[in-house]
Amino acid sequence: MSQSSLASRQRAPMTQSSKALWGGMAFSLLFTALIAVAGYRLEPLEATFLPDAGASWYFWKLVDPTAFNRTVVWTLYAVHQLAFWGLIYYAQRTKHRYTKGLHPVNQWALGMNAFFIVLHFIQTHWLYDGLAQDVSIWSSQASVVLLLVAVLAMENRRRGLFWGKKAPLNQRAVDWLRHYHGYLFSWAIVYTFWYHPMTDTMGHLIGFFYMFMLMVQGSLFFTRAHLNRYWTVSLELMVAAHGTLVAVQQGNGIWPMFFFGFVGIFVITQMHGLRWPAWLRWATLAAYLAFMAWVYAGRGLANLNEVIRIPLIEYLLVFILVGLVLLIAKGVEALRPSRAVVATES
Known about the structure:
The protein is an all-alpha fold.
């Protein structure tokens, strides 16, 4: 690249969608800080909760929930979910194109999600309970895992699945996933968002910040900011920080499983979509292996199997998900043969 073209790029003004992205990140950070500052108001109520009863138990829920509490939170969740789906449907039906700017529908999506973030904060300090009162903690965790697995499948064509090499995934199913992923992702985000009350533990704060960032990403559909590879990989990798820090806070000693598991997926798959030079990829792999050797020299080699648990599950789920999507695609297309799916850029 010439000096003149480099200087021209450096002088290029920030696009409207990039400004919205940075603004959304700032909003996410500030609102997470608000949750932390206001958390003291919930402490007297949380002191009355039943003691933790194991991995399947969710601590942050009222002992005696009322029908009114349940009705309010489920109604807010349903309205938020349907509104998000409606905006995605409108954008696809009106055949929006990818742009550096913002479509009006992006502005509506950003405003809508900000509105429900504020509503959830008010609802927490008024009635407290999220959806956790009625559904399992595993459903919330599974929804996020499903999102991450779907991204691995959709990005296979661009960055591969293993060390930059493409996996033999059915392209018809992947095209379906790319076309309809907005509905799946918005469900995973909104469902998890309303599952938890906005309390101030480290796990909740990191988790809500993550959900806010995913809402920003979901609101910027059909913009170039939505496709920024460093931004999207950062969202994928953020789960490593969340899982590791929550495990450290809980003191259960299994933080290496989350750290090396999710960072391992970055080393095996995600970093190969960043156009890094070979030396940087080798250096990242070397640093990862060196840190792993240092940790397990003290932890014991018998525990080294922790490292492969999360990658093994996620990569296996990629193939299962693609198979299920293919079955759904064949079923739907058999009923509506004239409705062919055209893959959208993702």
